[in-house]
Amino acid sequence: MDTTGKKTNHRLTYGLIAGLVVCLITLGLYLGGLDMYLGPVAYVSYLVVVVLSILAGLRQKKENGGYLEFAEALKITFTVFALALLLQTLFTYVLLNYIDVPFKQAVAQEVMNKTEQMMKKFGATDAQIDQAMDAERNKDPFAFSRVLLGYGISCIVAFIICLIISLCIRKNKPVFDNI
To answer: CB pairs under 8 A, 24+ apart, for 37-41?
Structure first.
């Protein structure tokens, strides 16, 4: 029995659901203002993606009679993550570059302020801080190339998370069925 369509369907379905939920969370954070957008509550969206990737893997495991190979679990969980992160990246790019450019500028300025505070906290000299700030001041942190790089880095981190999730939800079929 060919279940390839079902596997792809779960990956895409849960990935799209996760992406939609993450975009709605991002919109809510945006509407909440700069402090909320850059605050720790923003990490809730990643928890949502973790939960939905687990649910996608468990659903496929149930359809496979309680078994799910590690490689298959990894494909499912990573597809959910990659699709959700892609949708969030595209949504954020459009939001900040086309819908509300002043908000983008405010985010960039606040990120610069937090970076400066962090550098001071770690003992950087004023010259080092000035050099780092000057290097970043003329760059657009939301340029497509930088957003794409951020997506790639996020996918690498997501892959590590998916490895752990897949190890937890996998269950191999026994080599010999004891009847």
So the answer is: 37/107, 38/107, 38/110, 38/111, 38/114
C-alpha span between 17 and 8 (Å, rounded):
14
The model carries a pTM of 0.88
Residue 78 neighbours by CB under 8 Å, 6+ apart: 53, 158, 159, 162
Q: Are 37 and 142 in contact (CB under 8 A)?
A: no
Task: Report how far residue 26's alpha carbon sits from residue 42's, in angstroms, rounded to the nearest whole number.
Answer: 8
* Nearby residues of 96 by Cβ (< 8 Å), 6 or more positions away: 103, 104, 107, 142
* Angle at alpha carbon of residue 100, lines to 108 and 19, rounded to 5°: 90
Which residue ranges make up each domain of the chain? Answer: 4-96+142-169
Model confidence pLDDT, tens digit, residues 73-107 = 999 999 999 999 999 999 999 999 999 999 999 99
CB 71 within 8 A of CB 21: no
Q: Which of 101, 52, 81 is nearest to 161 (CA)?
A: 81
pLDDT tens across 111-139, in order? Answer: 999 989 999 999 998 898 888 888 888 88
- Residue 171: beta bridge partners? 68
How many CB atoms are closer than 10 A to CB 64? Answer: 16
The answer to whether the CB of 165 falls within 8 A of the CB of 55 is no
